[in-house]
Amino acid sequence: MRFATIDDRLVLVDREWALDVEKHSGGRFSADVNTTLARFGELTAWAAGADWAGAVTFTPEQLGAPSPRPRQVFAVALNYRPHAAEAGFQAPDEPLLFTKFPTCITGPITEVTLPPGKPDWEIEVVAVIGAGGHRIARADAWDAVAGLTVGQDLSERAVQSQGKPAQFSLGKSFPGFGPTGPFAVTTDEFDDRNDLAFECHLGDERVQHGRTSEMIFPIDELVVKISAVCPLLPGDLIFTGTPAGVGNRREPPRYLQPGEVLVSRVDGIGEIRQTFV
Length: 277
Ligand code: ZN
Description:
CATH superfamily of the largest domain: Fumarylacetoacetase-like, C-terminal domain
CATH class of the largest domain: Alpha Beta
Bound molecules: zinc ion
Shape: globular
Helix content: 10-25%
Structural class: alpha+beta
CATH architecture of the largest domain: Alpha-Beta Complex
């Protein structure tokens, strides 16, 4: 199952077709993503037999974030060994967590106004939480994930690294710095939900690529570690980390410029596209 939002309403997606969940369930489910993801098991059961006769076509530009109002957005630093090495750090023993404040979350095809400083890219696979829970066991952790989507952890490195010790969250939360989409894909749709290939292109150049099997802390372990402290809520997001190839670790460093286009793609999900102004 694939889900997304159009005009801030939860829809199921099948190729170019979208089915409005509230309308076509006769009001059984809300158009609000957080409300309906709280009943994620019921939603998938209904979706399996849904009548697509009333589906409408859509274009990618119409899509909003699959989860537009997450109450918590968790993000993981240094979750791929080569990226930890390029950033000058040892691989961490525990997940290094920060937040992207939720006002930065957007849909998949956007124009992003670059702040002054050193704006940079980080492709990430993003987990969208379903019913949620507290102290989730490893055996149940994948069941807590409603779907996976494509994200960019856009990061302004000057704000990110200011202060001693530095804190990551603010520099990663400018407006538009958390694009996600085009849809969330339930984990049963992947041949191996632990091994998704992804890549990111800036203009003609492939700047990052990797596979989620290369994570230091895989997604189910992140769910366990985070939910051991914070109860996970329906619609929460986990940005699961980026591989090597970010701009500020290049020699010389390279930062995003007005007019550039960044396309981020995950196999089995789709792509998001940011144009910078
Ligand atoms: Zn990141």
